[in-house]
User: Which sequence fits this backbone?
């Protein structure tokens, strides 16, 4: 099983993903929000890469069953029902709803990788559950860090490294690209305390500045969810529990 990490989706075009199994990470905060919304009963998340398209798509859907969510520069977009804080996506708000989601980097990375044969969503919350499923599939993997405005992001790379280390515990026949090895090394040096790492990062600092400190605490939780979101056509849904691979002992909960 070969694993490659893209530190930003900018270095490749959409066709690069054709036929590949991909994992998209935007730990702060888009992929954490997607996992949380689906776990809290949202019917589906429709990721889009422009605000205009989000409005157009939601206009063609049943209004009372659809919510527009997302952010610009971390803040809720005018006219949208929800921002991009996972704490907003509670079951009383999202249960049974289709959510059209636009975010600066995360949903764009998902849209870019849409030609993948399978595309999974990862954040610190679901590393262990997803690693078990990927080890079970035993196919080559592309891990896409959404990054920040086409640049490297520490939290996404550390999350990728933790995912790789967990897969490695289940499959000792991995071939890692240089970027995959670098992510694993970063997760060993910067991933011991995920919350502190996020507080020191560029995007974490911006979120704190803009009043979203609680989101860092939420997004830093490790293996708190068994949810495995995947792209099914144009929408992200939850993989049914019974497809969910093999068990391998207790999960690491501390950061
Ligand atoms: C993004 O996609 O860039 C984000 O998830 C930004 C955020 O809302 O923190």
Assistant:
């Amino acid at each position: 099983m070969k694993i490659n990490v893209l530190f930003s989706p900018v270095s490749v075009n959409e066709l690069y993903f054709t036929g590949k199994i991909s994992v998209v990470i935007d730990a702060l905060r888009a992929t954490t929000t997607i996992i949380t919304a689906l776990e809290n009963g949202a019917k589906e998340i429709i990721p889009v890469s422009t605000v205009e398209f989000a409005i157009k798509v939601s206009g063609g859907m049943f209004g009372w069953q659809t919510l527009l969510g997302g952010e610009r520069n971390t803040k809720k977009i005018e006219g949208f029902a929800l921002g991009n804080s996972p704490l907003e996506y509670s079951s009383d708000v999202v249960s049974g709803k289709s959510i059209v989601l636009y975010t600066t980097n995360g949903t764009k990375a998902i849209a870019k990788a849409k030609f993948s044969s399978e595309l999974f969503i990862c954040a610190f919350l679901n590393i262990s559950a997803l690693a078990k499923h990927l080890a079970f599939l035993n196919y080559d993997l592309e891990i896409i860090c959404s990054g920040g405005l086409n640049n490297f992001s520490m939290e996404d790379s550390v999350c990728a490294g933790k995912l790789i280390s967990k897969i490695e515990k289940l499959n000792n026949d991995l071939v890692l690209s240089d970027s995959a090895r670098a992510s694993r090394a970063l997760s060993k040096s910067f991933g011991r305390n995920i919350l502190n790492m996020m507080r020191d990062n560029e995007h974490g600092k911006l979120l704190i500045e803009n009043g979203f400190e609680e989101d860092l605490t939420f997004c830093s939780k490790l293996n708190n969810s068994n949810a495995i979101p995947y792209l099914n056509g144009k929408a992200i849904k939850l993989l049914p529990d019974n497809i969910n691979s093999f068990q391998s002992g207790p999960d690491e909960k501390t950061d």
User: Anything to note?
Assistant: Residues 2-233 form a domain with the putative 2-phosphosulfolactate phosphatase fold (CATH 3.90.1560.10). The chain is about 35% helix and 20% strand. The radius of gyration is 17 Å. The mean pLDDT is 94.
